[in-house]
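Need the bound structure for zinc ion, inputs here:
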Amino acid sequence: MSRFAQRRDKIRRNLSKRNVDALLVTDFTNVAYLTGFTGDDSYLLVTKDRDYVVSDQRYTTQLGEECSDLELSIRGPGKKMLPFVSRLLTKLKIGQLAVEAQSMTIAFHAALAEAAKNCELVPVSGWVEKLRMIKDKDEIARTRVACDQARRAFEVVRATLTPEMTELQVAADLEYQARRFGGIGMSFPPIVAVGARSALPHASPTTQKIGADDFTLIDWGVNEGLYVSDLTRILVTGKISPKLRKVYGVVLKAQLAAIKAIRPGVTCEAVDHVARSIISKAGYGKRFGHGLGHGTGLDIHEGPRLSQGQSTVLAAGMIVTVEPGIYLPGWGGVRIEDDILVTRTGHEVLTSVPKELEACLVG
Ligand code: ZN
Ligand code: ZN
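Answer from helper R.:
Posting the output first, comments after.
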């Protein structure tokens, strides 16, 4: 049985528990996770005994290659998706249909309810997302590739960095190198923020020159094809000021301590607390205004979330970022981010870009 079929079987077990006849998967990322099909505009219907991909003729060949074990329900040109889905539901005598509440718009829900009049729609949440939190061997291997591509792209950009380059040029170079090393693109538009601009946790690159201040924050990741990586490093292009040394030291200490705390059985909020208490004790508690980290996978942000109030328990196979930061308006921000795999006995750091402050000195 393929790993995709195994995933669908796990979803199937929810059907009788929730007393529904089928789940209609309309989130394209969830469809990819459950089928291996990487195109879009396609739904997956998981019933008690069979699974159907509802797609159109553009994808017939790709579907045959990527998920030959599935029943295909291909609509012809000019045939609208929802009436087509409705006919399939009627044919299969689906009365109670679970739908993905988290990703469905109100408009889509109304249109589906109108098209599938004989079905009762039952909103369910997180069925697929919960499975996606635990990565299998293949997903972990792909994430390793994404981490490695991110490292290699960064190394080239770092080696060719000049004070005259702008934030935008550095971001463009990162993306170009990521593709040269085999990635299909970035995990998200990279953040390249010089000096004071790095105090904005989500700064977009501008025409600011790298040489305009002592340091630059770079937050980037690569999509290897399906799975993504996510890192943040500081590059020191000027001198290491006492303030930078102090702030950087606190963030690094918090990050290393939080990574050390990662193992199965520990709650997400406990890991967040390890980093947060170190930053608070140093007097910067109010300057760490975001959660400690997030899961990565097919999406850049997925479960679990490492933050306050998150009681989810870490389990082997989860991949999370650990990214504490201190942001001082007018001066700048320091964030250090790595991707961590939860293993049976503890954890493994998947990203390997050096992060001791001296190692961040350029030139
Ligand atoms: Zn990041
Ligand atoms: Zn992140």
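Comments: DSSP finds ten helices and 18 strands in the chain. Residues 227 and 298 are 5 Å apart (CA to CA).
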